Structures are given as C-alpha cells and as structure tokens.
C-alpha cells in the first residue's frame, strides 16, 4: 500500500465498487469479493461492504437497484477509513 499510495488504492476501491457492487443485478452476489489479494477486498469484508446482502443488512442500502453516486462515495469512504486506520498500526 505504501508503494502504490493512497490515491491509487482509492482509485482501485472506486473501480471495484463500481464494477462489482454498484450494478442492480450481480450474478454472483455474495461471492464477488475475494477474502485476500488486495487491501480493498480485506477492507470490504471488515466494513460489511463486500456484497449487496451485507450492504443491506448493515447499512440498509437496498439490493434491488443500482447504487447512487452518493452511496458509492459512502462505501469507498468506509473502505478508505478502514485502510487508513490499519495503516496507523
């Protein structure tokens, strides 16, 4: 993470959320976010932003529609807050 920088990690977070979480229909919902391999994936599981089921259960964001830009920003904000907190350790 230190090598890539926070801007690049945040860019990846937006990319992952937009492609894997924001669409209305996700064929593999609940399985689209790996448990390892990228800091964003780990943060998504830690913040309950890994799938639409968790987004609804923990954040009350409905499953049956695309995420709004505000919701995408909210999710990425949670992910980045977790990553930044972990970097302090």
What does the model show?
Helix 2 crosses helix 4. It is built from four helices and no strands. The radius of gyration is 12 Å and the shape is globular. The longest helix has 20 residues, at 69-88. Helix content is 57%, strand content 0%. It has one domain (6-23, 33-88). The protein has 89 residues and is mainly alpha-helical.
**What portion of residues is helical?**
55-70%
Discrete helix count: 4
Poorly predicted sequence stretches spanning 5 or more consecutive residues: none
What is the H/E order?
Answer: HHHH
Task: Tell me the β content.
Answer: under 5%
From the N-terminal CA to the C-terminal CA, the straight-line distance is 14 Å
Count of domain modules: 1
DSSP summary, beta strand count:
0
**Structural class, please?**
mainly alpha
pLDDT averaged over residues? 93
From the spread of the alpha carbons, the general shape counts as: globular
**What summary fits the major beta sheet?**
none
Cα-based radius of gyration, to the nearest Å = 12 Å
State the gist of this model.
The protein is built from 4 helices and no strands. The protein is mainly alpha-helical and 89 residues long. The longest helix has 20 residues, at 69-88.
Helix and strand layout, with pairings?
Elements: H1 6-20, H2 39-46, H3 52-59, H4 69-88
Helix pairs in contact: 1-4, 2-4
């Amino acid at each position: 993470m230190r090598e890539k920088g926070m801007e690049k990690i945040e860019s990846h977070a937006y990319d992952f959320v937009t492609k894997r979480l924001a669409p209305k229909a996700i064929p593999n919902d609940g399985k689209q976010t790996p448990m390892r391999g990228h800091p964003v994936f780990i943060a998504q599981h830690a913040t309950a932003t890994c799938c639409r089921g968790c987004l609804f259960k923990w954040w009350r964001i409905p499953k049956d529609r695309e995420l709004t830009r505000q919701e995408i920003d909210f999710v990425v904000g949670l992910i980045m807050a977790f990553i930044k907190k972990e970097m302090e350790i």
